[in-house]
Amino acid sequence: MYFVVVLLLFGTLSTVNSEIHSLNYIYTALSKPVELPGIHEFTAMGLMNDKQIDYYDSVDKKKIPKQDWMREKLPADYWEKGTQSRKSKEQWFKVNVNILMERMRHNNTDVHILQWRHGCEVDTQPDGTLKFMKGTDQYSYDGDDFLAFDDVTMQWVAPVDQALPTKRKWDGVQILNQYTKGYLEKECVDWLSKFMAYGDKEFIRADSPPKVYAFAKKAKTAGHIRLTCMATGFYPKDVLMHIKKNGVQLTKQDGVQSDGVLPNDDESYQIRMSVQIPEADKETYECYVSHRTLKEPIEVKWDGKCCDCSQVVIVVVIVAVVVVVLLLALVTSLLVLRKKGKICAGNTGALSPTEIQAPLNGNGNGAAILSMPVTMDSASSTSSDSGQGSNERLEREAMLTNEAIGE
């Protein structure tokens, strides 16, 4: 059984009963165009609860709704003003990505990426009000952290030396830092509250319990298998999962790995945890899952079976059969040729030039073609790699001012 998942970050949750909501805006600027479909020099998008609600790119140059309720509830001037704001930020990013390239001593041979993300996360209280949990306002360059705002101290944090000039400049404008803090803790929360009211039907769905599975597959390490616990189909996303050995919870120190909580296509969620164990291990393993839809946690025992461990034996048998068949075919061919006088007993298998065929051991031209590596010229390879990387990270938001990053 194979499960295709998208990797997301997963944090340990203090409670499984809270309802967390988020609103984020993500902007990305590339230092130059890449010839890849759907990837533009500049993009901007709004995300509510990790679902896209609006979008803008440097080709169409228009902010558009990505949810029906956004189109229905928000007036035309909202989108017109949003378009002008996106155009302004597009120019801001174009200037600043060049400033950062100079500061980092980078040339325009490769594609470089400047990204900004800002937004807020709230917790829904029992009375329906929203409690501010945290705000995010951070920049990255080529996927690495460059600058981040600490809304507690109202100061910018510079993890790299190249960001220090920007930190000093922005911290010198206290009114800007006060505005940034106010946006994260108040204005962003107000917009999130309004959007939650608009998109109530789209974003609120019935709770559903998890379905839990335990299975194992052969590991890369010889003599070992990877035991996996999977819970899927649950909503909301807050969940608690453990792998237990003889009733004792295993931890990261025991080799437990997890991709965290992941979205399904139907707006429900899934989570997987796995651990590598010896193939001959006969201990008792079970999957423990707790979710607010359950009266009591689910515990599913692993049946001790491995999904694909027998495939190796099957492959060996198939290869042996094929070798025997080929040898029989070779012997038969030699006997026929000898009977027809094409070869004689004194010649050790030599064929006339007209009878030479591709050898059965796979060293002929056909095998050479099959094993020949696919190559790309250096330009296309660089473009593809850079484009793919930008596609994975094609998400950050712009600054709340027209001040440039440079001094």
The description of the largest β-sheet is: 8 strands, antiparallel
Strand order of the largest sheet: 4-3-2-1-5-6-7-8
How much is the radius of gyration in Å? 30 Å
Strand content: 25-35%
How many extended strands? 16
**End-to-end CA span:** 56 Å
Tell me the CATH superfamily of the largest domain: MHC class I-like antigen recognition-like
Shape descriptor reads: globular
What sequence of helices (H) and strands (E) makes up the elements?
A: EEEEHHEEEEHHHEEEEEEEEHHH
CATH-defined topology of the largest domain: Murine Class I Major Histocompatibility Complex, H2-DB, Chain A, domain 1
What structural class do you assign from the helix and strand content? alpha+beta
What do these coordinates show?
With 407 residues, the protein is of the alpha+beta class. It folds into two domains: 195 residues, 2-Layer Sandwich (Murine Class I Major Histocompatibility Complex, H2-DB, Chain A, domain 1), CATH 3.30.500.10; 91 residues, Immunoglobulin-like. Helices cover 30% and strands 29% of the residues. It is built from eight helices and 16 strands. Strands 4-3-2-1-5-6-7-8 form an eight-stranded antiparallel β-sheet. The chain is globular, with a radius of gyration of 30 Å. The N terminus is likely disordered.
Topology at a glance:
Elements: E1 19-30, E2 42-48, E3 51-57, E4 64-65, H1 68-73, H2 76-103, E5 113-124, E6 130-141, E7 144-150, E8 155-157, H3 164-171, H4 174-198, H5 200-203, E9 211-218, E10 224-234, E11 240-245, E12 248-249, E13 257-263, E14 269-278, E15 285-290, E16 298-301, H6 311-339, H7 365-371, H8 378-392
Antiparallel strand pairs: 1-2, 1-5, 2-3, 3-4, 5-6, 6-7, 7-8, 9-10, 10-14, 11-12, 11-15, 13-14, 15-16
